[in-house]
């Protein structure tokens, strides 16, 4: 499978099962994507360990962005499966709002 997200290694933050990086086409300053490191196409297909790793990384990423950019709040976006890019690799989009 040729998936750009599966090949990704330039994580700003990461843990064993998930990684976070700045969006290539940001909606706002500090827009980040959080992905499982293994190829998963749908949120409901994540294992409980993957969900816990992503959850932990969402909070770590928020803390990082709070310190770096001081946004007012965040939007958390989980695209529908048919809207996913990068060979249908699941991502969670953490979008700061100012």
Could you say what the CATH architecture is? 2-Layer Sandwich
Q: Please report the distance between the alpha carbons of the first and last residues.
A: 38 Å
Number of domains: 1
What structural class results from the helix and strand content?
Answer: alpha+beta
| Text of the CATH class | Alpha Beta
* Gyration radius, in Å: 13 Å
Strand order within the widest beta sheet = 1-2-3-5-4
Strand content: 15-25%
Largest sheet: 5 strands, antiparallel
**The CATH homologous superfamily:** HIT-like
Quick structural summary:
The protein is an alpha+beta fold. 22% of the residues lie in helices and 23% in strands.
Write a structural description.
The chain has one helix at residues 48-69, and strands at 13-14, 18-22, 32-36, 73-77, 92-97. With 98 residues, the protein is α+β, with helices and mostly antiparallel strands. The chain has a single domain (13-97), classed as HIT family, subunit A, CATH 3.30.428. Strands 1-2-3-5-4 form a five-stranded antiparallel beta sheet, with helices on one face. The chain is globular and about 35 Å long. The model has no long low-confidence stretch (mean pLDDT 92).
Any descriptors?
98 residues; alpha+beta; HIT family, subunit A; 5-stranded antiparallel beta sheet; globular
List the helices and strands and how they pair.
Layout: E1 13-14, E2 18-22, E3 32-36, H1 48-69, E4 73-77, E5 92-97
Antiparallel strand pairs: 1-2, 2-3, 3-5, 4-5
């Amino acid at each position: 499978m040729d998936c750009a997200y599966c090949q990704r290694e330039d994580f700003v933050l990461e843990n064993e099962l998930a990684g976070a990086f700045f969006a290539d086409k940001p909606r706002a300053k500090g827009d980040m994507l959080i992905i499982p490191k293994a190829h998963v196409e749908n949120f409901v297909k994540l294992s409980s360990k993957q969900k816990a790793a992503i959850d932990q990384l969402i909070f770590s990423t928020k803390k990082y962005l709070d310190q770096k950019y001081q946004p007012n709040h965040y939007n958390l976006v989980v695209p529908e499966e048919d809207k996913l890019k990068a060979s249908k690799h699941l991502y969670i989009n953490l979008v700061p709002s100012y």
